[in-house]
């Protein structure tokens, strides 16, 4: 079982947190901090697996982490999951994000955390891996987005326009915090077919 | 209408949405907390509005704030509101928020049951999907119980998207509501062969999670998984299956042999990913434990894996190699490993290699010469932490194997001579530990040294002082031993005595360095030996031959003693180790006495508990006598109702229908007392046979646990049931009670313990209830082709003939002419009797008039009250009081006001409607007893005074008791 999925940036700011076991909000923040501390002090070239922090069950659980440009993706799992399988799942997750956001960058995650949640929900459900096939995930996400659009209909149009205007006069929103060239940095060693 | 919506949306388009919130927080880096608190105030305002879109927007923002660590549980009710929106967009926002912040103690969760049920059956697959996803995060035991049936239905949904989610969420349901596992399992098993790979993978996932905790219950699925493993192309599924087999192989030795081939294929296959390689190796190491031979043949393949670029795979391969070393291949494997030691990067892996090599050799090295040279070679390893290990191995071999001592000593002498190579950077280099062994071996077995003088010189080099204290100490001590040997050699030779004196001088020169050591041990030894040598030198100067005496200082050989040697020494005859040699002083005795008596008290209490059932050790004659007495008692008991079908009528349903033509009445009938006893006896017989066959303790404990689960009544309370069972209990249950249970140390809160259900013996869990239905034709037409059908719930199922599907109806075996009634019986299997249940059903039939016939349908509900699971069971007053004393029963009470019936009528009503029997009656007070079909005891104490009836009740299943009491209350409120 997956216990938690965390995404935070190089400074430890949470960009997504999904806990599949209940913790109080305070504990959740402590876990994020502790995990960031554990993960960030490691070199780039050491392996992606380490033992979980004390707050989330200690050595019973493993942290599987991957660092892409400015973001850390960390999955906390128990002994029933294969480390390498999860590592691949992170890859699938990131590639899916990349497809859904068209060249994903940290800003996408910052402003659309709800969408990231929706994508994740098609991959992992209640801590169990639901789908590992990227095409299937994207198909389902797209279908739901389409439904959302059709529901918004005419009524949604003005809101969208306003949102576009709001975004227009935003000098501080350059897409410079790019998540990086995923396909180059992480060659598709082990994509599931 | 559309205009209104547009207007509404224009109103709110200037509301802050999630993006605005995020942007705002980013713009208020200095006073983030303050900014967020104003945002929260805004959100609170938004939540007060009626517009669901505004609410959804607010909830969406709250979800983000929750991630930042703000408690948003105050908005739980609003979240539920958004969840129940009919629009998918909002629904999804609501469910996401719920999945992030709802948990078991969120009280509004109870309100969601119906909404979730509605969403689960929504025609839109994404509504269902979103509900399932949300539910998977916040499912509670109550939700699991109430929705299990709906989710089970979804497992057979036409859309694979729903199927896979439904299958996956079942695991969560099982965890929260273990009772659902058994009924759901067959369908789950079916899904392993679902045409959709996603569904298949979900089913594999769930079963792997289940099997990981209780593998033995899933052994029977092994062939199916075997098939999947060879046919599946989904790597995720493969990983899971290999993991599963890892858990199963220890339990089923035959599995190992079968697995080897497909696993090797996986490793071989060029296409296979290194993940699978890793797991394949992992699984092989598990097989190795049971089938060393079958793994042996793949030695080369595994050796290849040592070259893998992935460290994890190398470590796995190493583990495997360790297990498969034999006499024949030992040298080859170690040689190969030694090569790897040289190549290896990273200290962790190298240390791991080193320990493995030593482990392998220490257990199986047959060629000690070769082993010593390996050990010496290993000392070249820099930076290892395992110098100590190597040292102890060297000592071990040198001491135990006399034949190789000469060789070992020679090697060690070389080591000492080259000590500077090892001690390059002493402090962080653990390898210098080896010198400890080297020094000791050279000293102790110095007679084998070729050039003792050179070694002695090497041991007294000033550089030695940089070594850790305990090594220096050994150096000093063994320098003395060497010195003795050297002296003997020099004095035996006809050379002049000055050589010997020079040797002494060497020591006198060098030792003061050690005398100054800060390590006490070194200092002490050094000063002792220094004084000794000075004395010897004095004697030498007087031309006294001292060699003999000096050697005598170190005479005698140290023999290796096995760690368990003491145990093997037989105690000499006449020696009693437990007898006092001196009587202990009186003070401690009294204390000891006190402790003893305390211990006794505990034991005595314990004993009384165990002896309780002993009164049941009565012979058959006595039993027969008792039975007679009981029968007589029953005959005289006006409240005792004998088990005859007519008296067991429970409830009459009259179903009226808008169409006035036919009607029929239902009669629930529970004539189970006989069947149940038979079933129970059968089960016991079977258990007995099982146990006799396999004296396996574990098996027995499992049986016992299974039984305990069923009724929640420990064997202790079962001991007090009717005499008919008692003989059985004494012979079967007591010894089990006495055995310590393996499960004691397990965490009682582990949810997986409850899931340890033997899935292969389903019938044992089911209890049958026979329902007798009276069909009465009240119309003027002829009725035929009646078909009776009931929608199964998780808990209760209509028993259908073999081969019939779960939705097929049962044909009523008669036709009804006008005005005629007839009775048909249907059997239901029931698992959980704690809750009353309502089953929906339909009766379809053909109404035949003279010229036409029409097909009609009649819906009805079957109400299974908790009372209907009780069987009138007589109980002795002594057994009854024992039962109450046992303390296993939990109490509950009820007060009925304004009952103006004579007391005996009241009792008769309870007996009649609720299947109790009177145990004892004194004036206006009576004790009553009944038993459920699953063996729960239920005791009532009924008292009456001034039209008020109070009932104190006790039962080992509080849920059942509460429901029965409610039903009793209902009975009296109706009259």
From TrEMBL, chain A:
Q: How does it sit in the membrane?
A: Peripheral membrane protein
Which is a Pfam family this sequence falls into? Clat_adaptor_s
Q: State the compartments where it is located.
A: Endomembrane system
> Where on the tree of life does the source sit, at the highest rank?
Eukaryota
Gene3D superfamilies, per database record: 3.30.450.60
Does the record carry Membrane as a key word?
yes
Please state the protein's primary subcellular location.
Answer: membrane
Q: Which residues form the AP complex mu/sigma subunit domain?
A: 1-147
Listed under GO cellular component are:
AP-3 adaptor complex; endomembrane system
Keyword check for Lipid metabolism, yes or no: no
Q: Which family does it belong to?
A: Belongs to the adaptor complexes small subunit family.
Stated role:
Part of the AP-3 complex, an adaptor-related complex which is not clathrin-associated. The complex is associated with the Golgi region as well as more peripheral structures. It facilitates the budding of vesicles from the Golgi membrane and may be directly involved in trafficking to lysosomes. In concert with the BLOC-1 complex, AP-3 is required to target cargos into vesicles assembled at cell bodies for delivery into neurites and nerve terminals.
For this entry, the protein name equals AP-3 complex subunit sigma-1
The organism encoding this protein is Oncorhynchus mykiss
UniProtKB/TrEMBL annotation, chain B:
GO CC annotation terms, alphabetical: AP-3 adaptor complex; axon cytoplasm; endosome membrane; presynaptic endosome; terminal bouton
| Ranges of compositional bias, category Basic residues | 689-710
Show the segment(s) annotated as Disordered.
Answer: 576-667, 680-724, 736-755
Q: Which UniProt keywords apply?
A: Membrane, Protein transport, Repeat, Transport
- Quote the biased-composition stretches of kind Basic and acidic residues, using this chain's numbering: 603-633
Cite the Pfam families for this sequence: Adaptin_N (PF01602), AP3D1 (PF06375), Mu_AP3 (PF26171)
List, as start-end ranges, the regions of compositional bias called Acidic residues: 736-747
Main location per UniProt?
Answer: membrane
GO BP annotations, alphabetical order: anterograde synaptic vesicle transport; Golgi to vacuole transport; neurotransmitter receptor transport, postsynaptic endosome to lysosome; protein targeting to vacuole; synaptic vesicle budding from endosome; synaptic vesicle membrane organization
This chain belongs to the protein called Adaptor related protein complex 3 subunit delta 1
Its lineage reads: Eukaryota, Metazoa, Chordata, Craniata, Vertebrata
Gene that produces this protein: LOC110524334
């Amino acid at each position: 079982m997956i216990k938690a999925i965390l995404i935070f940036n190089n400074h430890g700011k949470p960009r997504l947190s999904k806990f599949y076991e209940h913790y109080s909000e305070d504990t959740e923040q402590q876990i994020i901090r502790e995990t960031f501390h554990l993960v960030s002090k490691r070199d780039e070239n050491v392996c992606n697996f380490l033992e979980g922090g004390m707050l989330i069950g200690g050595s019973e659980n493993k942290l599987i982490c991957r660092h892409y440009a400015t973001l850390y993706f960390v999955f906390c799992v128990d002994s029933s999951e294969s480390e390498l399988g999860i590592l691949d799942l992170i890859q699938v997750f990131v590639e899916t994000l990349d497809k859904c956001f068209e060249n994903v960058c940290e800003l996408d995650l910052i402003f659309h955390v709800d969408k990231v949640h929706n994508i994740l929900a098609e991959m992992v459900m209640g801590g169990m891996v639901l789908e590992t096939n990227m095409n299937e995930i994207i198909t389902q996400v797209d279908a739901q987005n389409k439904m959302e659009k059709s529901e918004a209909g005419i009524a949604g149009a003005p809101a969208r326009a306003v949102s576009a205007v709001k975004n227009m006069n935003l000098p501080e929103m350059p897409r410079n915090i790019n998540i990086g060239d995923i396909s180059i940095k992480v060659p598709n060693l082990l994509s599931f077919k | 209408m559309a205009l209104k919506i547009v207007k509404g949306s224009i109103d709110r388009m200037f509301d802050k949405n999630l993006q605005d919130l995020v942007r705002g927080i980013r713009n208020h880096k200095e006073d983030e907390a303050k900014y967020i608190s104003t945002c929260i105030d805004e959100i609170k305002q938004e939540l007060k509005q009626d517009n669901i879109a505004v609410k959804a927007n607010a909830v969406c923002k709250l979800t983000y704030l929750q991630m930042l660590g703000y408690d948003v549980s105050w908005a739980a009710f609003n979240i539920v509101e958004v969840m129940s929106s009919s629009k998918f967009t909002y629904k999804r926002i609501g469910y996401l928020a719920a999945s992030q912040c709802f948990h078991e103690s969120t009280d509004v969760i109870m309100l969601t049951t119906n909404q979730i049920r509605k969403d689960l059956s929504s025609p839109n697959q994404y509504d269902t999907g979103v509900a399932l996803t949300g539910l998977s995060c916040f499912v509670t035991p109550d939700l699991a119980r109430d929705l299990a049936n709906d989710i089970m239905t979804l497992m057979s949904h036409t859309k694979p998207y729903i199927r896979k989610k439904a299958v996956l969420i079942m695991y969560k349901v099982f965890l929260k509501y273990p009772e659902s596992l058994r009924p759901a399992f067959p369908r789950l098993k079916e899904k392993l062969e679902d045409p959709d790979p996603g569904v298949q993978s979900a089913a594999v996932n769930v079963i792997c999670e289940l099997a990981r905790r209780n593998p033995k219950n899933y052994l029977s699925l092994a062939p199916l998984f075997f098939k999947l493993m060879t046919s599946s192309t989904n790597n995720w599924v493969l990983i899971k299956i290999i993991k599963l087999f890892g858990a199963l192989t220890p339990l089923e030795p035959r599995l190992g042999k079968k697995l080897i081939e497909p696993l090797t294929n996986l490793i071989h296959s060029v296409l296979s990913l290194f993940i699978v390689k890793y797991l394949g190796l992992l699984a092989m190491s598990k097989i190795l434990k049971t089938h060393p031979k079958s793994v042996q043949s793949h030695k080369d393949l595994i050796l290849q894996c040592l070259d893998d670029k992935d460290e994890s795979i190398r470590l796995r391969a190493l583990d495997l190699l360790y297990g498969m070393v034999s006499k024949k291949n030992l040298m080859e494997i170690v040689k190969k490993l030694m090569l790897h030691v040289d190549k290896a990067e990273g200290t962790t892996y190298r240390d791991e290699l080193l320990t493995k090599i030593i482990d392998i050799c220490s257990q199986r090295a047959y060629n000690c010469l070769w082993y010593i040279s390996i050990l010496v070679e290993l000392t070249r390893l820099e930076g290892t932490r395992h110098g100590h290990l190597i040292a102890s191995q060297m000592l071990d071999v040198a001491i135990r194997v006399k034949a190789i001592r000469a060789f070992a000593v020679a090697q060690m002498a070389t080591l000492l001579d080259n000590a500077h190579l090892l001690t390059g950077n002493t402090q962080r280099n653990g390898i210098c530990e080896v010198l400890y062994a080297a020094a000791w071996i050279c000293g102790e077995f110095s007679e084998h040294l070729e050039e003792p003088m050179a070694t002695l010189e090497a041991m007294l080099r000033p550089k030695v002082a940089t070594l850790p204290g305990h090594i220096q100490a050994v150096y000093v001590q063994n320098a003395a031993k060497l010195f003795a040997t050297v002296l003997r050699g020099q004095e035996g030779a006809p050379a002049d005595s000055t050589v010997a004196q020079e040797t002494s001088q060497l020591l006198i020169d060098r030792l003061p360095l050690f005398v100054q050591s800060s390590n006490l041990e070194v200092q002490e030894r050094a000063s002792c030996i220094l004084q000794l040598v000075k004395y010897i030198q004095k004697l030498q100067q007087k031309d006294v031959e001292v060699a003999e005496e000096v050697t005598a200082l170190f005479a005698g050989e140290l023999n290796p003693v096995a760690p368990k040697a003491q145990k093997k020494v037989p105690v000499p005859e006449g020696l009693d180790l437990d007898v006092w040699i001196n009587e202990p002083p009186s003070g401690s005795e009294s204390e000891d006495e006190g402790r003893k008596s305390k211990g006794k008290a505990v034991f005595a209490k314990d004993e009384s508990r165990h002896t309780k059932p002993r009164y049941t050790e009565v012979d058959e004659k006595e039993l027969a006598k008792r039975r007679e007495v009981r029968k007589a008692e029953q005959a005289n008991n006006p409240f005792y109702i004998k088990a005859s079908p007519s008296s067991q009528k429970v409830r009459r349903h009259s179903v009226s229908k808008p169409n006035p033509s036919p009607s029929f009445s239902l009669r629930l009938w529970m004539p189970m007392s006989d069947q149940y006893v038979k079933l129970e006896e059968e089960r016991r017989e079977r258990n007995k046979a099982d146990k006799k066959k396999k004296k396996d303790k574990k098996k027995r404990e499992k049986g016992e646990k299974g039984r305990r689960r069923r009724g929640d009544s420990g064997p202790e309370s079962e001991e007090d049931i009717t005499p008919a069972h008692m003989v059985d209990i004494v012979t079967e249950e007591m010894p089990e009670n006495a055995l310590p249970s393996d499960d004691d140390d397990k965490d009682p809160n582990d949810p997986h313990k409850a899931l340890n259900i033997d899935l292969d013996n389903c019938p044992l869990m089911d209890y049958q209830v026979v329902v007798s239905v009276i069909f009465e034709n009240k119309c003027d037409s002829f009725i035929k082709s009646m078909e009776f059908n009931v929608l199964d719930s998780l808990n209760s199922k209509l028993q259908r003939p073999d081969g019939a599907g779960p939705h097929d109806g049962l044909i009523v075996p008669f036709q009804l002419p006008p005005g005629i009634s007839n009775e048909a019986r249907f059997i239901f299997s029931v698992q959980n009797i704690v809750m009353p249940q309502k089953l929906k059903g339909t009766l379809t039939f053909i109404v035949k008039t003279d010229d036409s016939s029409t097909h009609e349908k009649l819906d009805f509900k079957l109400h299974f009250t908790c009372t209907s699971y009780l069987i009138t069971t007589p109980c002795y007053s002594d057994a009854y009081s024992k039962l109450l004393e046992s303390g296993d029963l939990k109490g509950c009470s009820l007060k009925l006001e304004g009952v103006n019936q004579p007391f005996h009528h009241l009792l008769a009503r309870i007996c009649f409607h609720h299947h109790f029997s009177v145990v004892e009656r004194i004036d206006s007070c009576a004790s009553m007893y009944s038993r459920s079909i699953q063996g729960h005891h239920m005791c009532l104490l009924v008292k009456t005074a001034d039209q008020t009836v109070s009932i104190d009740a006790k039962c080992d299943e509080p849920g059942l008791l509460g429901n029965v009491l409610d039903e009793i209350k209902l009975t009296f409120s109706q009259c």
